[in-house]
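Researcher: I need the complex structure. Ligand is 1,3-dihydroxyacetonephosphate. Inputs:
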Amino acid sequence: MRKRVIAGNWKMYKLLAQAVDTALELKPLVANANHCEVIVAPVFTALKTVSDRLEGSNIKVAAQNCAAQNDFGAHTGEIAPIMLKDVGCSYVIIGHSERRQFYGETDASVNQKTKAALAAGLAAIVCVGEMLAEREAGNAEAVVQAQLKSGLEGLTVADMERIIIAYEPVWAIGTGKTASPEQAQDMHVAVRKTVASMHGRDIADRVRILYGGSVKPDNIASIMAQPDVDGALVGGASLEAESFARIVNFDR
Ligand code: 13P
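Model: Output:
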């Protein structure tokens, strides 16, 4: 049985006090959510305070990016996975499409960062997803398969136990356009098949695959009803505690 995961990616929103307020407001609203893991991903500058304030709760903290190195060194502006672990993170999001599109992230950097994150004891939420033109050309599955093969290259089965895959079609992010539940299900099956070809059926059946892209309180139930959708990575609708809590508690 795969434990579901609902993660809120706060992107570059919220000053420190606002991040803390949202986290504290969320805490009681999801305190009874035993059916899934709950994760929030604030900006770097809020990670320490938010994780301190959430200590003892069922909400885990993720960073939104990390460096590809854990060794201290001359990497101005970078933050090592061990530093994220040090301030209370359990997860890090890697290879989000915004980082791929606007900040030069590649499958190769995703691979290095994923390995560095795992080496630091973090679990990684590795993002994949096709652009609209790729879907329209009928290449969506091939694109995602290639991202997985390179992004997860060289990982062991034990590593895969600490990987969560997030399928986020780029055309559905922040657009209000969600993939249909069937489109999500079809791609999640394809993702599982790719993982099976790399690491065997057993781990493919166990890996959690989240859907992301315009997930809202009113569409979460139909997405979660798909057998291969194990959770959601939520952007805009995770910024308000009340709305994110409705997503977490989609089946209550
Ligand atoms: P939205 O939910 O705002 O579409 O963002 C999705 C996303 O990018 C989560 O990582």
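Model: Summary of the prediction. Residues 181-199 form the longest helix (19 residues).
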